[in-house]
Design a protein that fits this description.
Length: about 375
């Protein structure tokens, strides 16, 4: 009986101890999120005018408690707030350039909670001061991205505000993006600042180093938008925004790489480069598709003395600009002509000077093109 009494006493003691943690009393522990790092660091001076503002936490956050009121920079407009759960990091993308040589304060509100529910015990703030208005102080947050090897990865259909282009290597900005389904891709730039009357730049697409799809040159003043588009199959591509002149002038721009429904690709794509040329034989290939600055390469073997005749007939009934080129086996252009027509066939011929594979390229500057290609070979 005594042993039974001892066991009962032990059970009661355990129950009493367990109950102390369940009564909601003062012994209950909390684990609020804490800011462990900021960018810029608190008290920093000479900060760029298009800086990102970031805070890192020691705990994962409840994303439902994150908005532009919960984390903001006083005196500045927020374009976008992003949360990276892997880094436990909040990032502010600001809408415009900050005021030069001005003190700013960033605030994280106590409404921010950790994943699980505990809030910050109080607001957290930190301050910094911007530098002067010059090219060096609008070097953007993607630099260095001066070539394809250092291209900055970006998300499609997302605005990246207040990027910069200036002199020397700083006038080259490369961006890398992935296309998951066949899409028309537009690079849209909006000039938001320039220290001269207007700024001119190129917009260009690349597949990889040495393989550019084409480019557009443009000149803008603050507030103006320019765009350039191309239709891409799934894959990784690059966009370049480059200032014309290697001078001391600088500019800032917003960038968005937009996607939309593609112009319809034909069964011979992807044949945008000479190395991908579609082999053809004499005859007619019907129902081919052309898009804005789309390039279609076709290849055929010719013996020396044989004459290649290529005819492109536009089926769609509207005015469109096209270019036809014929290349020899070394890839040198033998015929290069541009035409603007309304459905009229365009024919060009070339007599081979050597045995080997020759190439025909047809290029369009309009979406929605349907065309036929006639290939003839004669002695």
């Amino acid at each position: 009986m005594r042993s039974v009494a001892v066991i009962v006493s032990m059970i009661l003691a355990v129950m009493m101890v367990a109950g102390c943690g369940d009564d909601g009393g003062s012994d209950a522990k909390t684990n609020p999120p804490e800011v462990i790092q900021t960018y810029p660091e608190a008290g920093t001076s000479d900060v760029n005018l298009n800086t990102l503002v970031r805070v890192w936490f020691d705990e994962s956050l409840d994303e439902a408690t994150i908005d532009s009121a919960a984390f903001h920079l006083e005196g500045a407009e927020t374009r976008r707030l992003e949360y990276d759960p892997g880094e436990r990091m909040l990032t502010l993308y600001l809408d415009t350039l900050l005021v030069p040589e001005t003190a700013y304060t960033a605030i994280v509100k106590s409404s921010v909670k950790r994943s699980g529910g505990d809030p910050m015990p109080a607001d957290f703030d930190f301050g910094f001061t911007t530098g002067p208005m010059d090219c060096a102080h609008i070097e953007d947050y993607f630099e260095p991205n001066d070539d394809i090897a250092s291209a900055a990865p970006i998300e499609l259909d997302t605005v990246y505000p207040v990027l910069s282009t200036s002199g020397g290597d700083e006038r080259y900005d490369f961006f890398r993006f992935d296309v998951e389904t066949t899409s028309k891709v537009d690079v849209v730039t909006k000039c938001v600042y320039t220290d001269t009357t207007s700024v001119g730049w190129y917009i260009q697409f690349w597949r990889e180093e040495g393989y550019d799809y084409g480019w557009m040159s443009t000149s803008t003043t603050p507030g103006q938008e320019r765009s350039y588009h191309f239709t891409f199959l799934p894959g990784t591509y690059y966009a370049e925004v480059r200032k014309y002149a290697d001078d001391h002038h600088c500019a800032a721009y917003d960038l968005e790489v937009q996607t939309s429904s593609p112009c319809e690709e034909d069964e011979y794509e992807d044949n945008d480069f000479i190395e991908e040329a579609t082999p053809v034989t004499p005859g007619t290939i019907s129902n081919l598709r052309g898009c804005h600055v789309d390039r279609d390469f076709y290849s055929i073997h010719l013996d020396a003395g044989q004459t290649l005749t290529a005819t492109a007939t536009q089926v769609t009934d509207f005015r469109a600009t096209r270019r036809m080129k014929i290349f020899n086996p070394a890839g040198h252009v033998k015929i290069d002509t541009t035409f603007t027509a309304q459905g009229a066939p365009v024919t060009r011929s070339w007599t081979a000077e050597e045995d080997g594979t020759h190439y025909v390229k047809v290029r369009w500057w309009t979406d929605g093109i349907i065309y036929d290609l006639d290939i003839g070979v004669s002695e």
